[in-house]
Fold this protein.
Amino acid sequence: MMMFYWIALAIVSTAFAGLLYRLVKGPTVADRVVALDALGISLVSIVALLSLITETEFFLEIILLLSILSFIGTAAFAKFIERGEIFDRDDNR
Amino acid sequence: MIQIVEYAGVILILLGGIMAVISAFGILRLPDVYTRSHAATKSSTLAVLLSLSGTFIYFWASESFISVRLLLGITFVFLTAPVAGHLITRAAYRSRVKLADSSTEDALEEVLRKAEEKIEDVTEDDNDPEQPPN
């Protein structure tokens, strides 16, 4: 049973390496942010597999934190690419 | 019985890994940002949903531990990953990232240009000091 989890971890790590290549190579900033978002999501499944391999349920909080942080980071990057600023202030309008 | 449920979890996890590889392959091979984001949002979300469901089923079957945090994580990823993909694609289009050369039609370009011209006209009228305000 444990062998399947190691195999799944190896497969997901292969996907992770491919995403890292796109993160370094990506021609535009938007490409890099798309790759970063997908990296955060596959990091979530890597943490789930690690918690299966070590047989603890203490890693499961990290899943929630990572998904929230990845979403907030992507939203901030999207706003930065679109307007050049992250925070809206009322006196700027 | 427990063994069968654990094997169901293992099958879900392996399917999740295969979906992750397919999505990474799409991100590597597709030609521009928009098609890449198609690969990154849909199949990555499916991959992580399958992996987390497999983990949930494993902990449920082997230790009879129902993890609410895992369920919350599944819901949150399912809600936010498509939204994040939409946000980043919209930002890429509005910052004029080019489409791939093989794409044939851009229906949004004309509409967006008209809207931008309208916005510029309105701001010019507001800044014009010679015209009296109505």
User: Anything to note?
Assistant: Chain B touches chain A through 52 residues (CB under 8 Å).
